[in-house]
Structure formats: structure tokens, C-alpha cells
Amino acid sequence: GRRGTLKGMKQRLLVVANRLPVSAVRRGEDSWSLEISAGGLVSALLGVKDVDAKWIGWAGVNVSDEVGQRALKRALAEKRCIPVFLDEEIVHQYYNGYCNNILWPLFHYLGLPQEDRLATTRNFESQFNAYKRANQMFADVVNQHYQEGDVVWCHDYHLMFLPKCLKEHNSKMKVGWFLHTPFPSSEIYRTLPSRSDLLRSVLAADLVGFHTYDYARHFVSACTRILGLEGTPEGVEDQGRLTRVAAFPIGIDSDRFKRALDLPAVKKHVQELTQRFAGRKVMLGVDRLDMIKGIPQKILAFEKFLEESPDWRDKVVLLQIAVPTRTDVPEYQKLTSQVHEIVGRINGRFGTLTAVPIHHLDRSLDFHALCALYAVTDVALVTSLRDGMNLVSYEFVACQGSKKGVLILSEFAGAAQSLGAGALLVNPWNITEVAKNIEHALSMTSEEREKRHRHNYAHVTTHTAQDWAETFVSELNDTIVEAQLRTRQ
Ligand code: ADQ
Fold this sequence. Notes:
Its EC number is 2.4.1.15. By secondary structure, this protein is α/β, with parallel strands linked by helices. The protein has helices spanning 40-46, 66-77, 88-107, 117-145, 162-169, 186-189, 195-203, 213-227, 254-261, 264-276, 295-308, 330-350, 367-376, 391-398, 416-419, 431-442, 446-462, 465-478, 482-488; strands at 11-19, 22-28, 31-36, 51-58, 81-83, 151-155, 174-178, 207-210, 230-232, 235-238, 241-247, 281-289, 316-324, 358-361, 379-382, 406-410, 424-426. A nine-stranded mixed β-sheet has the order 5-4-1-6-7-8-11-10-9, with helices on both faces. Strands 14-13-12-15-16-17 form a six-stranded parallel β-sheet, with helices on both faces. Strands 2-3 form a two-stranded antiparallel sheet. Adenosine-5'-diphosphate-glucose is lined by residues 40, 180-181, 250, 286-288, 321, 323, 364-365, 370, 387-392, 395.
């Protein structure tokens, strides 16, 4: 069968990602409390029928004693999670270093770190070694838990070395890899010192997936130009073996958002927000505080808009909700203070005794508060400088069933390829252009708004996270594993 190796049996899936979808807090020597973080990936996989998924990943805490590790394993097992234990040094070099300081900026076109070239080059070696070692630690856990017939789905730039580790151990294992970030142009990618090792390792997978066709094309170009392999419409060929490469645009669990809007608590919240901002249009930004999200650019564009459109000054408010991430990294600290400074300046310039134009919050909101905010928003502003997909744009659309507000969306977010016909697409670097689009969005006729919304809403509610996961898993099942190919020949 397409799904499931035996009739009536569920397809077993091992999902491997750097982070498990739970946060663990230690309560005592052998006790842990766990909280499920309901991200897109979790709800995507919960919704896939006939699949029995287990998660393998790092729990976000370093546990060095055996009693603690055993207790955590037991607690996680109840949530279908299996931990990979990394130590502090590995986390520092692999996660903070190679993943977040090298691959993340490079994949978003920010280049390799340049402050001190020699130091970077020296660090690079040891960080790459730690990256490979960490990936091998993930592989060891997968191998311990793998049973024949399982499919293994590896996620993201943290685990590019994993497909190779897995296949070396067991060439019959079905292995898929999906990248959540952009894959950059091969001209950017080729600056990476370990470019060939990583490509070869990813190619060990049976199926390689990206959010957009462009990212898939960039990946295939990197393989042809850097490794001299052959790209075909199906993927990349190396000595008769095909690695299937394709686009699998992610979606959200749109029903979850629609259901939330019907809850009395959320309705009450919506009512409060509506009263609070009565007489003003609400503009919204929701981002992790990351350089790729273009938050300073967004706020500067809003300032430009206030400058150019004095009539709007007391009739509009921008709510920018930015969850701090990677707070121990100096660049991220710099970004936070930069954003605070710009916001302060603009509020000083355009604020009145009773109202300020920008409310900036450095924190995350719970799911219900977030839904209420999305629902009362007139214009959402997504100005990512680069973004694999951007789910905030999808979530906003899902919550706008009655309001039918406008989405201003960066053309450099993967979402621009799916919501492009409904959104106002902008180049976030062009502050004047974004400012003009803010004005257009705020004064748009209701006919145009509804037409645009209808397009986006249809897309978001029909291309869901469940469809995404189902398509990927079923394509992975359909790939022919190398070992089977050999026996057929
Ligand atoms: P992210 O870079 O995290 O994801 P995004 O896709 O927008 O970006 O997802 C962010 C998620 O976090 C959303 O579900 C959003 O609701 C939530 N969130 C953000 N800020 C929040 C806040 N202040 N309070 C509460 N929740 C908040 C990476 C890639 C993306 C890709 C996804 C999925 O960078 O391009 O779309 O993975 O593949």
C-alpha cells in the first residue's frame, strides 16, 4: 500500500528535528514537567491520518546526570518523544555556532560572518566538526529506535548531515529531508567552506523538499555546479541513483484558528481590543525578533508613511509583537536595542499626550491572544528580508473571515508565491514603496479588499499543514530506495 507496509497497519514515522515540540523544566532529581509547544509542525503531523509519528530531538536542556536523563526519557515517552542528549560544548559549537551563526545567515543571504576573518575560519573547522558530531548523535538515537518499514523525516538546516549518517548505517532506510528556510542561490551557497560535504550528505536522502520551486532549483544548481552532478526535472542524479527534489509548500492548521475565534474567551478579547482601538485602524506585525524579519525596515516605512500622510497620524496604530529569540547572541541584542531606539524616536515624534503610533512588545502572546489580535487587524505587515515561507501571513488570513483585511507581504518570503495574488507585494528594502502600500492598504475600497481576501483565504484553508505533511510522507513512501533498485536490476 501507499501508506503502511502491512494492510491495516499505520505507517510509522520518525520525525527528527533539532528541537522536540516540548519544553522540559526540571522539577526535582527525577522529575520533569513538560509543556507541548503547539507549533506548525506538531499540528501538521497530528492531523495526518494513518500515520503513527514519534519525535526525536533535543529537549532544549542539557542534562548530564543519568538519573535526570532516565526520568526525562520516561516523561517524554508519554508524549511520543525521544530525546537526544547534547552537552553544553556541542550545543555551543553546533547549535549557536554552526547552525545559527553560519548556516542561518548564509541561507537568508546575509553572508558568512566577517568581523574577524581568521577567527571565523578557525572557528569554522571546529564548529563544523561539532555539527557533524551532533548529527551523528541524532543518527544514533534514530538507529536505536528504527524498525523496518519506518520512514524517517529529517528537518531543517540543523540536520543536513543526518541523511548520510543514516544511510551509511542502513541503506534500506527511507529517509526524507525538508528545509524550512530558503535555499539560497548557488552563488551564495558556494561560499560555504563545507559546501560539498553538506550537499553530498543531503543527497543521501531519498526525497529532498523545499517550500518553493525556486529553492529546489537553487539546490539542484548547487549540486550541478559544485559537485558536477546532473540535474533532471525529477531531482539530482549521481551514478544512476536519483535523489528526488521537489517543492512542498507548508501550510497551517487553519481550522484551529477558525475554531479559536468562536471561543467566548477569544470573542471577549476581540471586543476589548476593538474598544481599545476604536476610531483607529489597526496595523499588525508579529515576528520572532530576527534580522531576517526586517523589523527596523518595517518601522521605518511606517514612519515614512506618517510623515507623508499627516491626516492618518491619529487614526492608525501599529502593534508590533516581537518574540525575543537567541538572546545570548550579540547581534540579536543589538537588533533589540536598534528597534527600541527607532520606536522611541517615532513615538516621540508623532505621539500625543493620549496616544502613541507604535506599540512594541518584546514578548510572545498565547494562542488565544494572538488569534484575537489577528482578527481585529486591518492591515498586517510582513516585511521579511528573506523567509522560507512565513506562517504569520497565513495565520492572519485564517483569522480574517469577517474583517477581510489587507496583507502587505514581502516578495522575499516564500509565502509571496502562494499569497501573491491577494496580498500587496513589496520590496521591504524600499521604504518609500512600503509606505505607499500602507496608504493604499488603509484606503482600499471594500470591493478590492474582499476580492484580495477571498483569494488568500481560499488558499490558506485548502493548502493546510496536514496536506503538506501527507504529501511529503506519501511521496517519500513512493520513492524507490537504492537498495531495492539494486536488487531490481
Ligand atoms: P519562523 O522563522 O519562526 O519559522 P514563521 O513561519 O512566521 O517564522 O512562524 C512563526 C510562528 O511563531 C508562527 O506560528 C507565529 O504565530 C509564532 N509567533 C511569532 N511571533 C510570535 C509572538 N510574538 N507571539 C506568539 N507567537 C508568535 C521557520 C521559517 C519560516 C517558515 C517556518 C515553517 O523561518 O520561513 O515558514 O519555519 O517552515
